[in-house]
Amino acid sequence: MRYDFASDNTAGMAPEALEALAAANAGYARAYGTDDITRRAADLVRQRLDFDVEVRFVFSGTAANAIALSMLAWPFEAVLAHQAAHVCTDETGAPGFFGQGVGLVGLPGLSGKVDPRALAAALEEPEVGHRQPPAALSLTQSTEYGAVYTCEELEALITPVKARGHGVHLDGARLANAAAAGFDLKVIGRLGVDALVLGGAKAGAMCTEALVLFDKSLARRLDNRLKQAGQTASKARLLAAPLLGLLETGAWEAGAAHANTMARRLATGIVEATPWVLAHAVEANAVFLRMPVAAHRALNAAGWACYRFNDGSVRFVCSWATTEAAVDELIAAVASVSG
Q1: Nearest to 140 by CA among 85, 185, 180
Q2: What is the SS3 assignment for 257?
Q3: CB neighbours of 43 closer than 8 A, spacing ≥ 6?
Q4: Same domain? 184 vs 243
Q5: pTM higher than 0.90 for the full model?
Q6: What is the pLDDT of residue 35?
Q7: 271 part of a folded domain
Q8: Are residues 153 and 135 in the same domain?
Q9: How many whole angstroms separate alpha carbon 311 and alpha carbon 326?
């Protein structure tokens, strides 16, 4: 079975990340995030965002998302999110676990983008003692369906949420792909996002994710919270180093740009070679195809790992490591099962 397009998690570490990890492994350094490598990586995150933020490096996006949401809502409150968001469909209740009961309310919207009308309706619902009222909004950039919010779209969602005094979280597991597609990272803090998860794993940085707090008041006893959650690395430099390597060399953006380019090549090739249509526009590094069940099974049987997603389409994801040759092989394989 080939896992080239099953997920961007199936690719290994990017060379720049691996080289930075090897360099960080030499000699001795202070532990628990007080080392120079961790400091440099955090400074580069601040530079990319053009904002004075608190930064911590953790082992997984699930933990980063859940811990961030636990800061924005009390246990008797809820977080609004797209119904297909990772926090709603793929984190096994982690926000509720870390938030000691924090609820999730799924909202509709095309291609993973929250519909502003649905958000307005949720915000306007009367508060009663029998259900959890919303206290925060969680957004994903790029979305689970590979869409990229514009600054204007984000502003339209964030403004009414902030007007009510609620918090805003941004899941940026594929933020590099959004940036490579033209999204300006420097607007995130100015839009009113309180907590961001800046993704490293899908960009080629082993398992590293950066928990970024624009609202620095949320950082009170943050290190205690992370320690209790098992997210404090003793050899923190080895966690921060791969992301440092990507950011220092520009490979964080370059690898994502390559992945986006490969996704467009794949989408174009499949549409030209088959009678099938795309389920969503290709704006980042994912391709979603309306493929019959029998054809999908035949493709799996031919040795290509790909999965049917929440909306019934079949997803293919490109990464920093995707090659043109692999894209062309997949196009031929898809065409072979389309007859």
Answers
A1: 85
A2: helix
A3: none
A4: yes
A5: yes
A6: 97
A7: yes
A8: yes
A9: 26
